[in-house]
Amino acid sequence: MVGPFPGVPYSFGALRQTFGPLFVRCDVCRRYARLYLAEIRDTDYRTKTFSCCKCGTVGALAITEPNTETGMTDYQLDQVEGPQHHPAAVDRLTGTPRAAYRLPAKHYGAKAPTR
User: What is the distance between the alpha carbons of residues 61 and 35, in angstroms, rounded to a whole number?
Assistant: First the structure.
């Protein structure tokens, strides 16, 4: 028989005990990395978000290796040593507005929509 999980409920450690290795994937860059649980093993997984260190979009937690799933064979393993937060992700996570450095559509020759 199996007894109760001895660790913290709703933690990354509990997820790993249940599903095995965990991965974080970026659907924009089509990349993924293995999630190592050194510092976050006992952290509630419902309170953490992930982001891509290359493009800053939201990263998805995956319980299977993405390139083994049907239709996702083009995902590439990109294990980065000491990843840093993308500046756009830091602003989104902290809630502080960031100055927009994009030019308006009018600059590129787009016409204003008529009503």
Answer: 9
For residues 88, 91, 93, 96, the Cα torsion angle rounded to the nearest 10 degrees is -160
In the numeric block, which tokens belong to residue 1?
Answer: 């028989």
pLDDT tens, position by position, 79-102: 877 777 777 666 665 655 444 444
Mean model confidence pLDDT for the chain: 78
For residue 95, CA distances in Å to 22, 27, 32, 60, 113 come to 27, 23, 25, 20, 31
The residue extents of the domains of the chain are: 12-108
Instruction: Note the pTM of the prediction, 2 decimals.
Output: 0.68
